[in-house]
Design brief:
- The protein has 249 residues and is of the alpha+beta class.
- The protein folds into two domains: 4-177, no CATH class; 191-249.
- The protein has helices at residues 15-22, 58-61, 120-134, 146-156, 209-247, and strands at 4-11, 24-31, 38-42, 48-52, 72-79, 84-91, 94-102, 111-112, 172-177.
- It has a nine-stranded antiparallel beta sheet, with helices on both faces.
- A hairpin with a 5-residue loop joins strand 3 and strand 4 (48-52).
- The protein starts with a strand and ends with a helix.
Length: 249
């Protein structure tokens, strides 16, 4: 079936910074060959490469401008089953160059940006000549598949089917994806209904809207009561004067 994987190489970040940026954590295991879902390898030239065997997540994140913030990245993707290869360079959130070969569009298909690394012309010329010698578009081999792969290797020093230039017999560190934890949800705040005294006192004990409303009602009732009492006293005084006048006092 051949290789089917993605990888991203970083220059300017430590392995720990790369892990945080990609949401990966080391498991403590190492490998001679990258057979885990995610592996990392520190090359002797200073680049750090993360390889994804699942061929699922890295294509979604490599276009994120924040991925290359403060560093340089080279992204690669290969599928030897369909003979598809891609490589692109990024720096400080910007795409620098991009090159794609898709054999479903032709054996000599190649789509590249106008600006390419200095090595591109030499790589393309060499592999195009080998393709022509093998029979051109009718050949049973696909040398154009190697053009993105070789350009990426010239830039960062990594090729998926070569032994990496790295220290140790097991240079690949096994990584696992650790999605960021969701922040705890804030408690739902519910409005408490104001509690009022059972007895309808003249002075409201609450300062809420409803307390103020009841206070104004009580004060209005108190004013009416005082007015009624004053009117009753006046009427009683009038009756007493009439009674005294009638009795001759």
């Amino acid at each position: 079936m051949g290789f089917r994987l993605n990888w991203i190489a970083f220059e300017g970040l430590s392995p720990e910074q790369v892990h945080v940026r990609l949401g990966l954590v080391p498991t403590g295991e190492t490998m001679e060959i990258p057979e885990a879902e995610y592996c990392g390898v520190a090359l002797n030239n200073g680049w750090y490469v993360v390889i994804e065997e699942s061929h699922e997540r890295l294509p979604e994140v490599y276009n994120d401008p924040a991925l290359s913030d403060g560093c340089e990245c080279v992204y690669g993707s290969v599928n030897e089953t369909t003979m598809f290869s891609l490589a692109s360079g990024h720096r400080n959130g910007s795409l620098l160059w991009d090159i794609v070969h898709d054999s479903s569009l032709g054996t000599v298909h190649l789509d590249a940006t106008s600006y390419m690394p200095a090595c591109y012309d030499l790589v393309r010329t060499r592999l195009a000549a080998e393709q022509e010698q093998a029979g051109g578009e009718d050949a049973d081999v696909d040398y154009f598949f190697d053009i993105p792969v070789e350009v990426a290797r010239e830039v960062c020093g990594f090729r998926h089917d070569y032994d990496p230039d790295a220290e140790g017999d097991e240079p690949f560190v096994v990584l696992e994806y650790a999605p960021p934890k969701e922040p705890p949800k804030a408690p739902v705040r519910t409005r408490r209904r104001p509690q009022f005294d059972d007895t309808f006192e003249r002075r409201a004990v609450h300062t809420t809207f409803f307390g103020a409303l009841f206070t104004s009602i009580i004060e209005a009732m108190e004013a009416r009561r005082r007015k009624r009492q004053s009117r009753n006293r006046l009427e009683a005084s009038r009756r007493r004067r009439k009674r005294r006048k009638r009795d001759g006092y």
